[in-house]
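Please go through the sequence and fold tokens given here and tell me how the chain folds. Record follows.
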Amino acid sequence: MNNFNIIFIHGWLFDSRIWCNFDKLFMKNHNIKKINLPGYGDNIEKNLNHRDYCKQVFKAIDSPSIIICWSYGGLLTLQECANNYPNIKKIILINCNPYIFSNTSKSFLNKNNIETLKKELETDRYKTIQKFFFECVKNSKFSKNEYKFLKENFLIDSLPENVILIEGLKYLSESNNSKLLIETKKDVLIINGGNDHFIEPILSSNKIYNNISVKIINNMGHMPFISYKDEIYNVISDFI
């Protein structure tokens, strides 16, 4: 593999700890940077929303780079760099289906459920986050171990404040990046879990456009980095 800078962008609720050392698999051949979005982890930035923060990160890239993003992080990435930033050479979207094939409301993260999630966060933050942990691992082959890992490693008080989470949900409900993905000139790899009920399913691995490839990992739910690091790493390595 050629030496790249690789920037990791996490999803909603979970900060950069969610990579579970997945990034370390790339350290031998690449320069690694894990970001925390504003309000997440150690990022106390208050003057930039998530989109503007990503824009700032991407503008600062001065050598060939790859963006690896999960879920909500993929929506932010597509929105900000579909055709911008020439030093971004490849984008890898993990469990972030941008609704190319369908815009139905069958997935867990449909607009109605997002509105419910926003209200429940304000009513009972603790119970709502615990439930979201479960939804992240639901249907995974290793769901029990993954749920236990999340509960032990992501204490509720260490997660973003409700105002940050609700702002992110609002952006999620307004996002439809299929047009941006279709128009992008970047090389894109979509990696989806075969058992991820958060997103609309893509039923087979294939190439949907000359620059966009899809890989399905069987038995994987929405939370991929606890149990499926090696499988994802091998797919990305081939793509790079």
Summary: The chain has eight helices and seven strands. The beta strands are 5-9, 31-35, 65-70, 88-94, 187-193, 206-209, 212-217. The domain at 5-239 is CATH 3.40.50.1820 (Rossmann fold).
